[in-house]
Every structure is written in C-alpha cells, then in structure tokens.
Design brief:
heterodimer; A: alpha/beta; two-stranded parallel sheet; 41% helix; B: alpha/beta; seven-stranded mixed β-sheet; globular
Chain lengths: 369, 296
C-alpha cells in the first residue's frame, strides 16, 4: 500500500526555493507552451517536461529551458516520485483521437489510465504540495434538461456519448479521490472551454477552416471559446500562485454556431442529427480522428459556463468569446471565404445603386403615369 | 413621397440581411437574439396580438419598468400562444413614451423583454428549441430562472405547464394545479416580486374536445389534440380561432417578507396558492368583462 505523506512533512520550502515543477504532455502545444513560460519564470524553479514521445522539433525553441524526460504515464508514472516533484501540472490529456498515434484506444489509455497512474504516483511523492489538472467544460455532459449556464457545482445529468467527455468524467473522478486522500496538496482543476486563437490548431479550428461547414439541422448551439493566451496565463498563475478548487475557464459572452460560421465567411450545411451521429460513429469505427460524437453533442446542445469564480479568485477576465474568435479569424487570414463581410457590403451597395439607377431612368423617360 | 418610404424600407431590409449574413449581432448567454426578435418575431406576433386577437392589456402600470420580476400566468389554448402574446404585450406596454409606433420607419424604442420559461419538450425539438432561445426563452429550471432574475430580467412562467395548455375545452377557465411552486422559491431566493397575470381568450383558439392518446405516445407528446378543425382540415386546422383576448396584470407581490424561507415548503406552497387564487379571481373578472368570446 502507498502511504501518503503526512501534512506538514518536508513539503515546506524556505522562501525563494520553488522546487521542482513537473509538466506532463509537453509533446502537445499546450504543454510545451506552459512549460516554456514556467521555465522563464524565476518563481517556478526547475521545470521538467514529461511525455511519452520526444516533442516535435518545432517546439524545441520553447522547450530550451525545460529538462525533458521521456516516460509513458500509463506504465512509468513512478518517474514523478523519482523526480522529487513539488508541483505537478497534468496537461497530458488528449482531446481528440489521433489515428497516427493509436486512435481512440490509445487516447482513452492515455487520458484515463495515464491520469490514474499519475495521481497514484503523486500520492507517493513525498514533497508534492500542488497539483494542477487540465480538465474541460465537456465535464458537464450534454442533455436537453441542462441549465443554460453551468456553474462549477452543476452535475452532468446524462453520461455523455463522446469519448473525450467520458474520459474527462473519469479523470475528474480520480482527482476527487486524490483530493480526499491528499487534502494537504493544493489541487486546482481547470475546466477549459475549447481553445482558440491566432495560432491554435485544434479539431474545432480545422472545422471552421472548411469552406462548407456541416451543422445539425434545426440546432444552433451556443458556443464559448477561451483564447489560448488566456488559458496559458491562468495555467501559469495556477502554478506560481495558490488557487485550490475547480474553475471554469472560458471567454465571457457567447457565439451561436451559425453566427461563428457567418463571421468566418463560411457556409453552413445543415445535416440531420442521425446522419451526423452515423458519420461520427463510422469515424470512430475506422479510427479516423476529427469529427466525433463529442462534436455532435456540442453542436446539438451547445455549452456555456459561468466564470465568476475564476474572475473572483484569479482577478482576471479572459478575452471574450467573440474577441477570441475574431483573433482566430485574423490569424487565419483571408482565404476560403465564400461570404465575406466586404463582399456582402458591396452586394448591398450594388443593389441600392441598381434601384436608384432604375428609378432615375424612369424619371428621365417620364413614361410611367 | 411614397418612394422615399420604400427606399428606406429596402435599405433597412438590405442592411438587416447584411448584418444577419455576416454574423454582426449579439446573443446573450441564454441564446437570446434581440436583433432577430425585434426585427422578425415581434412584427409577426404583433399582427396576431393586435389584429387577430384584438388583445387588451389591463394594469400595464403594474409592470416594473426596471429590475427583476416574475410574471406568473395561467396557461391554456392547446398550443402555448398565450406565452408569446403575453411577451409581445409586455414588450409594447413597457416601451418608453415617445417611441415610434410599429409599422412606421425609424428606430423603434425597445420595451422590456419577457424571458419565458419553457418545458423541456420545447428544447428537445429541433427548430422549435432554437426559436425559443433566440426569442429569449429558456428551460424552466431553478438555475435559469434565478440567473435571469439576478440579472434583473422580467421572467414569465406558467406553473400549470402541460396540464394547463392541454386542458380540455369544458375545463377551459379552471386553473390546474401549480406543481410544487418552484417558481415561488426562485422569487424568494432572488428577492424578485411576483406579478400574477390573468389571460382570457387563449382558451377558445383551439378548443380541445378530444385527445388521441396512442398517437401522442407514439410521437412522445403530452397529448395529441382533436379540435373542431384539427386534424380534419389538415393545415387549415392550425389557424387559431379569432377569440377576443384580455390580459390583466395584477399588482406585484413583494416577496422580501419571506426572504430566506425559500427552503420552507409550507411558506412556498402557501404563497403559490395565494398567487393561484389571485389569478383565478382575475380570470372570473375578465370573463365578466368579455361575455362573448368571438365578438369583434
């Protein structure tokens, strides 16, 4: 049996010695960026990045100040204890199946078993004083009986159909257990809304990049995004400051899906929900990443969260959802737009000018009446 | 001269379309789209309200011009048109003086939007759910009601629910049970006053004389109405009968006296009963004012 260290054991540090911060998932965009910011902050001390595969070369610059350890959390989470971690930042959460990396089975293994093993190792780490876990607003599930706005205390009414959402529920369950067993560890759970920003590349940003965008017939869900830079800032503060608890992290305000599609100049193509679910199920069967039941559920029910707890505790308000989306659009630049605002304005002018011309012509001819 | 009016109308319509097509409008966290509501839904509802049902609204002075309030009304009519008529009635009655009359050009001054609470069936159905959200409605549940009231909104609730809308023609003026009075608890928790509202006229628009239970079960609906015209005349049967409507707003009930007692079921039940009794009396009063339902 593992023995949890008793409270007040060597987890106290003399001022100025922040100790060791272990960041999981540094092979992914969010993990690499968080590790990079921590390494640049003198308050954070030694930063060790863990991932099962070496990070892609384009992240090398960010990870220059980070010590890298290659370990698979599902089997080798013990490395956490060996590293003598003071703070663990768990970002090794896979949001969508990657067909090149084992598909949905590997994703679930990583998210569920990986988190379970990591938390077991954290429980054994004698010096651990803080745990920061990246979760998702998918934790609220999707049901017709849901309230419009989720606060952190809202329980999901139905088990969600999407794989990612179910992983998140499992993950949060493990974190709840960890909190009970290790009350002396400051535990922060951040439920992030879908990330967006000028440089973000996610399932959702790829979705909005298509010229013709499938939507669910008769549904126009309310969406919220959080700007990547704001998510990074909040993750960073969770490490260098103390904010125990669970927090929704999203940009205030709402865009409906149709509105977001229109603002990005795309054309929506409504598809019956059954058809979309079938496509998503097929994609899962053949382990094709991208569009899954997680997205179908989101596009039927939408998801809006209350961020007042975050604002109160962290003292910052993330960029609003429309602002974050505008930044994503500007970063993407023009291209692929079928209905740009400029084009609409010019069509409007042309019609008005045409009407005027016709009327002028009539007046000049004086034939009517 | 007429050409100028039409020029303006065409230009307005094009500007509206451009704003819609480029997503240049705001939606609140419940999905309420004031731009669409005022430009598209309100003119249609107003036509029904003024021309078809010749609705008279009494007691407009009892509608709070600012701050939260919970409007509690009776429900009838087989299809919940009464909720929509109350919403447009409240909006137009709270429009600030000096506003531009509907149908004239110029920016219309906005009244208060009544945020309706709907059954989960509404939000289960595609299209209908989105129309409900865009026009300011949301699911009838405590968190949403309290959130709207805390934000200072006018919230409309129909505690009879489907028992009310689906009441048969012979019981048409009889209020059904008010459930457990969840609406009272929401008002007590947020300190919002309760405004009892009586609506007469919706009872006659689709006289429900029968109910095809098996069809309703097949479609997952609470009832499948049979009226003198539906389903016999097909789509024609969907045209509501042009009854004369009266809506009366009663003086607000200040709930601060019971603040902090939202968890006491007896307090909640008694207050709900008081509201119910007020509405029933209002209905009797309105029926005396309107002896013949179909008089023009």
């Amino acid at each position: 049996m593992t023995s949890a260290p008793s409270a007040g054991s060597p987890s106290e540090h003399p001022d100025g010695d922040p100790g060791v911060v272990v960041v999981t998932g540094v092979g992914r965009y969010l993990g690499a960026r968080v590790a990079s910011r921590l390494a640049a902050d003198s308050r954070a001390g030694r930063v060790i990045g863990v991932d099962q595969a070496p990070p892609p070369p384009e992240y090398a610059e960010w990870l220059s100040g980070v010590e890298l350890v290659q370990a698979d959390l599902t089997t080798g989470a013990g490395v956490i204890a060996a590293l003598d971690a003071d703070i663990v930042v768990h970002l090794g959460v896979v949001t969508a199946p990657d067909p090149a990396a084992g598909g949905r089975a590997a994703m679930k293994e990583q998210n569920v078993i990986g988190t379970m093993q990591l938390l077991a190792a954290c429980q054994r780490a004698p010096r651990l004083r803080k745990l920061v876990v990246r979760s998702s607003t998918a934790a609220y599930g999707a049901s017709f009986r849901d309230p419009s706005v989720f606060t952190e205390d809202t329980e999901p009414r139905e088990t969600p159909r999407g794989g990612f959402a179910r992983d998140i529920l499992d993950l949060e369950g493990y974190v709840r257990g960890f909190r009970r067993r290790c009350p002396h560890v400051t535990t922060t759970v951040l439920r992030l809304a879908p990330l967006i920003g000028s440089a973000a590349d996610t399932t959702l940003t790829r979705y909005f990049a298509q010229p013709i965008v499938p939507t669910v017939l008769g549904r126009d869900p309310r969406l919220q995004f959080v700007h990547v830079d704001d998510a990074l800032e909040i993750l960073h503060r969770s490490v260098v400051e103390d904010h125990p608890g669970t927090y929704n992290v999203a940009g205030p305000g709402v865009l409906t899906l149709s509105q977001a599609i229109r603002r990005s100049g795309r054309v929506p193509v409504p598809v019956a929900e059954l058809g979309l679910s079938a496509v998503a199920a097929l994609a899962r069967r053949f382990d094709r990443g991208g569009f899954g039941l997680d997205q179908v559920d989101l596009f039927v029910h939408g998801r809006v969260v209350d961020i007042s707890r975050l604002v109160r505790e962290y003292g910052i308000v993330p960029r609003s959802t429309p602002e974050a989306f505008a930044d994503f659009l500007s970063g993407r630049g023009a291209g692929g737009e079928l209905l740009s605002r400029e084009r609409l304005v010019s069509v409007e002018r042309a019609i008005l000018a045409g009407i005027n011309r016709v009327r002028q012509g009539r007046k000049g001819g004086g034939t009517d009446q | 001269m007429t050409a100028d009016v039409w020029d303006q109308r065409v230009a307005d319509a094009l500007a509206f379309l451009r704003r819609r097509l480029s997503g240049d409008y705001e939606v609140d966290e419940f999905g309420f789209d004031p731009h669409l509501t005022q430009a598209v839904f309100h003119p249609l509802l107003r036509l029904l309200y003024q021309r078809w049902f010749r609705t008279e609204l009494l007691g407009a002075e009892h509608l709070p011009r600012s701050g939260p309030a919970l409007l509690v009304a009776n429900h009838s009519g087989t299809i919940a048109l009464d909720a929509l008529m109350l919403a447009i009635g409240v909006h137009d009655a709270t429009r600030p003086a000096g506003g531009v009359a509907p149908g004239q050009s110029g920016p219309p001054l906005s009244g208060r939007h009544l945020r309706l609470l709907g059954a989960d069936l509404v939000f289960r159905l595609p299209v209908l759910s989105e129309l409900a959200r865009k026009s300011g409605g949301t699911l009838a549940c405590a968190p949403d009601a309290e959130r709207l009231l805390r934000a200072g909104e006018l919230v409309g609730v129909f505690p009879e629910g489907f028992k009310g809308v689906g009441k048969s023609y012979q019981d048409r003026y009889k209020l059904q049970r008010f459930g457990r009075g969840g609406f009272v608890a929401a008002a007590l928790r947020t300190g919002a006053p309760i405004v009892p509202v009586g609506i007469v006229g919706a009872e006659e628009i689709y006289p429900k004389i029968g109910d095809l239970g098996p069809v309703a079960r097949l479609l997952g609906l609470p009832y499948f109405p049979v009226t003198p015209t539906f389903p016999w005349l097909g789509p024609l049967g969907l045209i509501p009968l042009p009854s004369k409507w009266l809506i009366e707003i009663n003086p607000p009930i200040d709930t601060s006296e019971w603040a902090g007692q939202a968890d006491d079921p007896v307090v909640v039940f008694n207050l709900a009963d008081q509201v119910r009794e007020t509405i029933q009396q209002t209905l009797y009063r309105l029926l005396e004012r309107r002896p013949k339902p179909f008089e023009w």
